[in-house]
Amino acid sequence: MSLEVRQLSARYRSALALQDVSVTLGRGELIGLIGPNGAGKSTFIKALLGLVPFQGQVLFEGMPLRKNKQRVAYVPQRSHIDWDYPITAWNVAMMAQSVLAGWFCRPSQAAKQRVTVALERVDMLHLADRSLGELSGGQQQRVFLARALAQNADLLLLDEPFTGIDRKTEGLMLTILNELKDEGKILLVSSHEWGEALHRYDRLLLLNRTLLANDVPQAVMTYDNIQRAYGQASTTSSQPAAYADFFC
Questions:
Q1: Which among 237, 234, 197 has a CA at the least distance from the CA of 217?
Q2: By three-state DSSP, how is residue 214 classified?
Q3: Which residue, 25, 29, 78, 106, is most buried by CB atoms nearer than 10 A?
Q4: Residue spans per domain, the chain
């Protein structure tokens, strides 16, 4: 089982967001997608999902991914969600089941059981009736992870899942992501993390409109690669402690 991306390019109006990105993601991998702000990380994930127009091919097990969307789960950036929308944690987790069954169909007992198990797995079942806006940032992120888990998808795409969460949620999410990896899932995580946190990934994709590096963390986070992705100033003034974890 693999996801193959071939020469993917995308534009926002006349601006080039991604250019000729080619990469293969294999089962049983936890892969980090990193790069500076505006590098195209979110655009890359949205292009995989078909949420933005693109050129190139996105193949899942040799077939266009758009024909296998039921096998893909997506956890969006927290900044892209309307947290004031009046919906409970239970109904958020149930969304994917409703899409699969049809919006006007009553969810089956099997669907309800999948959602129950997913919420329990992220320690949110006791808050299932709580409005999304009443939850903390970490709890909100766990609810969206529960929605992804309830899909039982083979490919999980997570956009900045560790931003604005507490340590309990971070630890719980890492445990679950590694369990999913051991189950043979493909996991792609867009991240702004630095330093030792990057060693949690089996592989890193360093992106700045095009794919600059694709390897294990120690091989990707070199002085030369960071200069290529972030520019000269980044090696002297931005995140110096984080870089020291790799260069010392």
A1: 197
A2: strand
A3: 25
A4: 2-247
pLDDT of the chain, 248 residues: tens digit per residue: 799 999 999 987 778 999 999 999 999 999 999 999 889 999 999 999 999 999 999 999 999 998 888 889 999 887 667 767 889 999 999 987 765 555 556 778 888 999 999 999 999 999 999 999 899 999 999 999 999 999 989 999 999 999 889 999 999 999 999 999 999 999 999 988 777 789 899 999 999 999 999 999 999 999 999 999 988 544 444 443 444 444 43
Token pair in block for residue 209: 């409109």
Nearest partner of 190 among 230, 228, 225, 162, judged by Cα: 162
Residue with tokens 């360093």: 206
Reading the block at residue 121, the tokens are 């797995």
Nearest-angstrom CA–CA distance, 18 and 155: 21
- Under DSSP, the state recorded for 153 is -
Beta strands across the sheet bearing 2-12: 15-26, 2-12, 55-60, 63-64
Topology (CATH) of 2-247: Rossmann fold (3.40.50)
Of 75, 68, 17, the residue nearest 207 (C-alpha): 17
Q: What is the dihedral of CA 29, 1, 64, 114, to 10 degrees?
A: -80
